[in-house]
Every structure is written in structure tokens, then in C-alpha cells.
Amino acid sequence: MTRWQRWQRGFKNLWTYYRGWKWLIFIGMSLALMMSTYLVVLAKTTSVDTLQEALQSQTVVYDVNDAYAGTYDSQKGTYVSLEEISPNMQQTVVTTEDKRFYEHNGFDTIGIARAFVRLLINRNTSGGGGSTITQQLAKNAFLSLDQTFQRKFKELFLALEIEKEYTKDEILEMYLNHAYFGNGVWGVEDASQRYFGHSASSLNWNESAVLTGMLKGPSLYNPIDDYEAAIERRDVVTQLLVDASVISPEDGAYISSIGIDLYDNYYDEAGNPYPYYFDAVIDEVVRLAKIPEDDLISKGYRIYTNLNPGFQQAVDASYQNPWLFGDDGSDPEPAVQSASVVIDPNTGGIAAVYGGRGEYVYRGFNRATDMRRSPGSTIKPLAVYTLALEAGYNIHSMVPDEVKSYDGWAPENYNHYTEPSGENALYYALAQSKNTSAVYLLNELGLDKSVQKLKQFGIDIPREDRSLTMALGALSYGVTPVQLANAYAAFANEGIRYESYFVRRIEDASGKEVYSNTKPSKHMVMTRNVAADMTSMMLDTYGGYGTGYGAGPDYGQLAGKTGSTETVEGSPDTRDRWMVGYTPDFVVVSWAGLDQEGSMSLDELMPSGMGTFFNIQTTQLMNASAQTPFNLTMASQMDQTSNELEGIRWQDEVGHLFDQASEWVEVHGPEILNDIQRLAEDAGQQINQWLQSIPLP
């Protein structure tokens, strides 16, 4: 007996002894039960009851005042009722796609059997017949297009749920409004306008046969891309109508003898006037609300945002002057890039974003939210000067302005000038962006304290960046424009910083609220008095002795800071320029720079500099704002050493102390717990040793 024969005999004995067929049937039934249970749960938990509402409505975006702001382009066309669709079209679709549509309950047993026979004979299901209109609606609305048995089973169970929820006419209406007809057109109404120039209500038999034929392959059988293929497919559909006695043989022959008269009357109105803002909304919703992007765009959500159209239009308009960036604006990838963001400091809401110059790419790189660059001197108020005021310095405190070596590194001012006296007032050091003074203060105040203060401002500093160069904004990881604007919002909002966000709340197609962020995280970064003193000092940036003099708006007060970085360390050429400005109504951060390091210099490519651009931008933002005054004096014009605001809120002081204590615990807590655990272990060992040393009686 061969080895194979011995193996066969052994297997047969085991199969007989353990009743193999019974176990096989049991396992098969168990798997079938689990599979059917899964499919039932899937069907029951799918939002079938809101399908019609979702198909009728587009996902709409609303601005900060709950006014309509735009819609997302999606797989939807103009939704019309069944009464507005020609009976010719209705009959043609039912006859061709699902002739027993009004008889079955979501799936066609005869059609499935025929498809199964074709699968056995031809090894494929070509010829159709296995999928009903209801199943096709379920597939288009809820499932992927993968040709798998799993998807077909899901399609079947969802079709049953749809049949329970809707009438046949409602299902046909949804199907015709959600079908794709090629050339970027969804729905029978827009398809009729696209190919024939009139409404779907007046489609004749010929036109109905053409559109129905396209359902099998929108890119293959549409008369624009392949006229002859469309004719052939139309004739097939026409013959089906004749065979079903829907039209007479004479009418069928006439239809097949004529051509297709094409006329395009379709207008695709853009529903997204603020593309970078709308893109950022998608990113935030996917990240925080956990709504998949495809669902968000296609299922009729209502998204309420912090978009301020006045601010957004002001920002957009400031970029309509390409000459400011050294080109004519025609290059899809300009040499000088730029981005801007505007935040409402009173709520943290992101009011406007501009993600980049050149050709907009859908869901592409958004420099306002995604780009990280070294902030240069814009970090000085955050990392150094706020901390200095909290440590006891005041507006007029004198600080050194001299080149000094710190372990071999001797920073100099950007213009290589130091005061002859070797010192200057704190406000002047900030207004003139003195590197020497900033590094001195950071060295005196301590890196750890600065890192913690930056964390309060919402900026985390990695360990490799924790050195004195941090005072000059030399950060390898960098910051985003949104992150920088959010940090400066604390100054504009009397020391309180809200986490920045785009979306306030979201409702689904039925009006049910599915996400809310009306109470963003709140941080007490500094007291009102410190915030006021910092603002007085930063009012000098654009209105007094500062580096941004002349770059502010044509009227009104603007506080803030400027910053720049080099193309390479030690080079006089500039790679990045930052301008930060704020009022009680808005915070704006604008960046211009080079995407890649190289031989180019921003100074040569953008000869007018950032000043003119920021002047135009902030003037327009002032026009769009409430123009709330600071009621503060520039530090250079103050005799007193501090603003000493009346009515200091004890809640602010307590809140500030509480936030500081919380952050101290967050940083030092793990270390303290480790020390306690180590002490407890040592104490336990000593007690154990003591017990072991006691002689037994």
C-alpha cells in the first residue's frame, strides 16, 4: 500500500468516526448565521431612513452668522421629483434595467437565477439581470464598486431595508436623480440639459433610450465621447422596448433610423467660493467629528463654521496684486509663495485662510494650516518678553544691547547695530527686534520656563530646539500660520487663548446635530495687565519705532510683530518673512517665502517687500471689522511703567495661577510619582529587612 493510499484510508476512518459531514454542515450553517447576522446589523445600522433627504440636499456650509456660504461639489445633480421626469424615461429605465421592478421586494429571484446560470456557463455575469434598480441604488448610495460576493450580499440586504422604507416611485425617483451619466453629470435632469438642452420632463423615446443606454457604461456609451457606441447602445435599448411591447415595432424602427441631436445647456455653478477654507473644514471634520470625507461631501450635512466672509474677501483681495510678489500671477507655481490666516481672538474661531498662490489644487497643500516654518523674531513676544514681564521687568526696564558670547555663540542684531550705551528699554528692544536683548533675557529667565510659556501659547518645543537660539525663532519643527495666529490671540483677548477651530457644529440631512464645538478649550496664558503691557509694546511695531513701521493699516491701531529667516545660516538672503498684526477684533498672520532652499533670495524676488502687501491687507481687514479700539497707549509714549488696569479680575489671577499649577504638575508630575514609587520601594525593602532581622521566639 502506497503512502497516499494509507493517508486516504486514515482520513476516511477519521471522517467516518467523527461524522465529518455533520460537522461540515454545522460549520457551514454557523458561518452562514454569522454572515447573515452581520449583514442584518449592517443594514439596520445604515441610515436608510435619511437616504432621500441626503440625495435631495447638498452638504451646505454656513458662515459665522449662520448665513449660506457655499456647498461642496459632490456626486449630485439637480434633484427633481418623479412627476418632473418624462414617463418615457421612467418606462425605458424600468424595462431595460429591471422589468419586474414593480413586482419584487428589492431583489429579483428570476434575475438572480439567470445571472447564476450565466456564471456557471460563461464564467462571468455579463448580460445583467442579477441586480435590481433598488440594489443599484443601494450600491451607488452606500457601497463601493468592488465586484465581490460580499458587496453583492450587502447590496441585497440594504435593498430590502430600502424597500421597507420607501415606495417604488420614491425608489425610482432616487435612482434617476443619483445615477451618473458621464462628463461629470449626475442625475437625469442635468443629463438631459447636458446632452439635449432641455428639461427631463420633455424627454422623448429616442432621448430616453440614449440616456438609459448610458447607465450601463457612462464613459463608453455617451454620445459626446463616442457617438457611434451611443447609437449602437440606444438601438439595443430600443429593441428591448419593442420586445416588451412598450413601443410599436414601427416606432422602434423609426428611432433606430434617426440620429442624436446634441445640445449642451448645462451650467455647473461653482458652490465653493472659498476653496482653501472649505478644504480645511473637511480636514477638521474628518479629524475631530470622525465623519468620513465621502460621507461629509455627499450626504447632505449642514456645517456651521467660523468663516467671516468680510475677512475672507479682504484677504482674498489682498492677493489680487501679483506684482507685489514679483510676478504677474499667471504662473501656476510661482517662485514666491504666501499664506494668510485670520482668527477671531474672542472665540478662537478661524475666520479666513488663504492657502497659497498659483493654481489651486483640490484638497492640495494648504500652507495656512499645514506648512511649518521657523517663525523668526515673531516668537520673541511669546518666548521671551511675556515671561520677562511676569518675572518683574516692566515696559521701561533697561536690558543689555551688546554682543555677548554664550558658549561660543555670539548673536548680533539683524542690522549689526547696538546702542552706544550698551542697553535699551524693554519696549524698544522688542520694537527693534534686538537679538542681543532677546537672547540675554532668555538666558536669564531660563529655557525651561520659556518652553512652558510657549506651551501655554499652544506651541510645543521639541528637545532638540531647546537652546538659546529659540529666542530668535530658530525652530527645526517650526509653526503653522494658524498656530502662530492662535498664540497671538491671547494678547488680543486680554490674556485668554481659545483653541482655534473652523467648525462650530454639524447637522445631518434630517437636522439632527451630530457634532458640536461651541465651547473650545480655554487657556489663561497671562493676566490682563501683562497682556495690556505686551500690547502697548507691540503697538510700537507698526506705529512707532518698530520694524513694521508703515506696514500697518492706513488708519487705526495695530499691534504685532515681524520676523524673518535666512536662506541658510549666516546668509544675508531672506527665505521667510512673517507679519503678525492684531486688534481686539482680529488677529492676522501673513507669510511670504520660498518653498525650497536654494540660490534665490526673497529680497530679490519680492522687491517691494511684505510692507506694502500687509498695508493693503490690514487696511481691508480694518474696513471689514468692528474697529474696536485698544484704548491703550504705545509704550514709547507712556510715562508709567505699566498700564495698571483698573478692575483686575480676581478670577483671571486665580485662573492664571491654576493654569500654571496644572502645567507644572503635567511636566513634573511623572517625575514626582517616580520618586514616590522609588521611596515606597526603598521603605518596603527596609521594613522587610527589619522584619527579617527580628529573631523568631
TrEMBL record:
Any transmembrane segments, and where?
Answer: 21-43
Q: What's its catalytic activity?
A: [GlcNAc-(1->4)-Mur2Ac(oyl-L-Ala-gamma-D-Glu-L-Lys-D-Ala-D-Ala)](n)-di-trans,octa-cis-undecaprenyl diphosphate + beta-D-GlcNAc-(1->4)-Mur2Ac(oyl-L-Ala-gamma-D-Glu-L-Lys-D-Ala-D-Ala)-di-trans,octa-cis-undecaprenyl diphosphate = [GlcNAc-(1->4)-Mur2Ac(oyl-L-Ala-gamma-D-Glu-L-Lys-D-Ala-D-Ala)](n+1)-di-trans,octa-cis-undecaprenyl diphosphate + di-trans,octa-cis-undecaprenyl diphosphate + H(+); Preferential cleavage: (Ac)2-L-Lys-D-Ala-|-D-Ala. Also transpeptidation of peptidyl-alanyl moieties that are N-acyl substituents of D-alanine
Q: Pinpoint the Penicillin-binding protein transpeptidase domain residues.
A: 340-585
Please give an example of a GO cellular component term from this record.
outer membrane-bounded periplasmic space
> Which Pfam families is this protein grouped with?
Transgly, Transpeptidase
What keywords would UniProt list here?
A: Carboxypeptidase, Cell membrane, Cell shape, Cell wall biogenesis/degradation, Glycosyltransferase, Hydrolase, Membrane, Multifunctional enzyme, Peptidoglycan synthesis, Protease, Transferase, Transmembrane, Transmembrane helix
Q: Where is the Glycosyl transferase family domain?
A: 71-239
Task: Quote one Gene Ontology molecular function term.
Answer: penicillin binding
Q: Tell me which Gene Ontology terms the entry assigns under biological process.
A: cell wall organization; peptidoglycan biosynthetic process; proteolysis; regulation of cell shape
Does this entry carry the keyword Hydrolase? yes
Q: Which residues form the signal peptide?
A: none
Q: Which family is this protein grouped under?
A: In the N-terminal section; belongs to the glycosyltransferase 51 family. In the C-terminal section; belongs to the transpeptidase family.
Record-given protein name: Penicillin-binding protein
